[in-house]
Sequence to fold (81 residues):
Amino acid sequence: MAGPDSRTFVGPVTVVGHDSVCIGGPNASGECFVKDQMTQSLQVSDCVRVTYTPDGSAIYATPTKIKHLNSATHIAECPPQ
Fold:
């Protein structure tokens, strides 16, 4: 379960790099996360909800929970490409 300082971000996977995975958002917003066991199976265009606790000292946030979403029911967050 998410703690009081956790945040949730919903959007499409936009970049899968060697060390990170980025989730895009509206108006060029987004978040990037450490590529680890939880994020390694994500692919560009996957629509996901990521829960994480921000760490101001880390380059990328580490997710605590990831859920794949149906992009057809989350059109505002994951618009068709």
